Amino acid sequence: MGSMELEHQTMETFLRWAADIGISDSIDSSRFRDSCLGHSLSVADFPLAGGRGLGAARELKKGELVLKVPRNALMTTESMVAKDQKLSDAVHLHRSLSSTQILSVCLLYEMSKGKKSFWYPYLVHLPRDYDLLATFGEFEKQALQVEDAVWVTEKATAKCQSEWKEAVTLMKELDLKPKFQSFQAWLWASATISSRTLHIPWDSAGCLCPVGDLFNYDAPGDDSNYSEGPESAIQTSSPQPISTANECRNNEEEAGPVVETQSERLTDGGFEEDANAYCLYARRNYQLGEQVLLCYGTYTNLELLEHYGFMLEENSNDRVFIPLETSLYSLASSWPKDSLYIHQDGKPSFALVSTLRLWLIPQSQRDKSVMRLVYAGSQISAKNEILVMKWMSEICGSVLRDLPTSVSEDTLLLHNIDKLQDPELPLEQKETEAFGSEMRAFLDVNRLWDVIGFSGKDVEFSRRTNRMMSKWRLSVQWRLSYKRALADCISYCNEKMNNLLRTRDRIRDL
After folding, report:
1. Where along the sequence do coiled-coil regions lie (predicted)?
2. Where would you tag: which of 326, 455, 482, 499 has the fewest CB atoms within 10 A of its CB?
C-alpha cells in the first residue's frame, strides 16, 4: 500500500472514530455514521494556503455552525486523567508544574501507549515535526539576523528546556520509555500544545480538539474577509477572532483572567456550556469547495513563528521595530513602547510619527498648541515633517546596511532554497558552485555539498535535513519581510519628504 493510500485510509478511520464519539459537522449527528464530515465540511488539500485543511462541502453562511465537538471528545488533562488511574495518581503529586507542563506530559503518556490509547486514531494524525522558534537550531536561529528575533528564539528554547527539566521527574514516575522522556520528545509535545490547543474555561492549558484543529489560520483584517490554522472569540456585530489557549495564557499572565459575560456569544468558536461542546462557526460566507478558515487572533509574523511555526507573506498585523533614542521614550508616555513601529507596508505607525514630531521640536517650542497638534496626529510644520521623514529614512537605511545580507541577496537565496527543496528541479554542479556563502554553509553543516555537487541532487534528503531546510527557509523569509518593510519605509519617507520640499518651493516661487 502506497503512502498516499495509507494516509487516506487512516484519515477515514479517524473520521469514523470522531463520528463515534459525537463529533459532527451537522446539527443532526445521527445522519452521518461513517464520517463526522460531509454535511458542511470535507478534508481537502490547499497547497498554496496552508496545505491540508477543511473545505466547504456546500455553501455556508456567515455565523452558521460548521463543527461541534462534545466535551468528552476534547483531549484535556481532565479527560486523560479520568481514563487512567496511574496517570491521575502521578499528576496529583506534581501540582507545582504548570497546567501546560501537565498537559504536555499527558500527551507524551498517551503517545507512549501506541494503539492502546483511546486517542490513537487522533494522535497518528498529529504532525511529527513543527517549525516553532523553540525548535530552531543554531544555524536557523542565526539566519534570522535581527537581534530581537534571535533573542526571542533563544528565550523560547531556554523556556522549553527549563520546563522539560522540571517535568522529567513526573515522566520517570510514569515509566515513560527514554525516547518519550527526551528533550526532543518534549519539544514536540510543547509545540503541539502551543500550536494546536483551543481555549477552554476550566483549564488554562487549553484542549486538543480532534477535527477542529484541521482548520487553517485566517488572519484578522479590516473587514470580514480574512486569510490561513485554530481557536475562539466574542461575537459582536462583526466577527472577532477565535482565542487560542496560548493567547489566553499570555493574556492572563499580563492582565489577569478574562471574564466573559452571559450576553457574549462566540463567533469563530468556543466552548459553549449549554451545548457541552466546542462549537465552531463560519466567520463569513463560503462557496462550495472554498477553504474554511478560523482566526487565532492578532499576531506579528515573529509571534506566529514563535507560537505556531508559520508566517504570512501579507500580514497587516506585522510590526517592524527600529532602534530609538532613549530620550525619545520619555516623550512617548501617551503611547506604549510597542506602538512605536513600522507597518509591513512601510508606513510608520501613528504613535511613532507623533512621537518623532514632538522629539524633533526644540523643547522651548513645545507649548500647548504644539502638544494639541501632536496628540491629534497633525503635522506641526513642513520643516518638522521633513525632519521626521529624513530621520526615519536614515535610521531604516542604517539598520539595513548593518545587516549581513540585502533584500536582493535574500530574494535570490529563497529562490535557491526552493530549487534545492524541489525534486523536480535537478541542479547542475555549476549551479551549486554559484550558491552564496550562506547556502554553502548550510550544505557544509549538513555534509551535503559533495553529494549535491557531484550527483546533481539524485539523492533524497533525509527527513532531518528537510526539516532544517524548512526552518532555515522560514528564517530567510522572515528577515526578508523585515528588510522589505524597512526599504518600503525609506521609499515612503523619501516620497513624502520630496512632496513637502516641492510644495515649499512652489510657495516660495509665489
Report:
1. none
2. 326
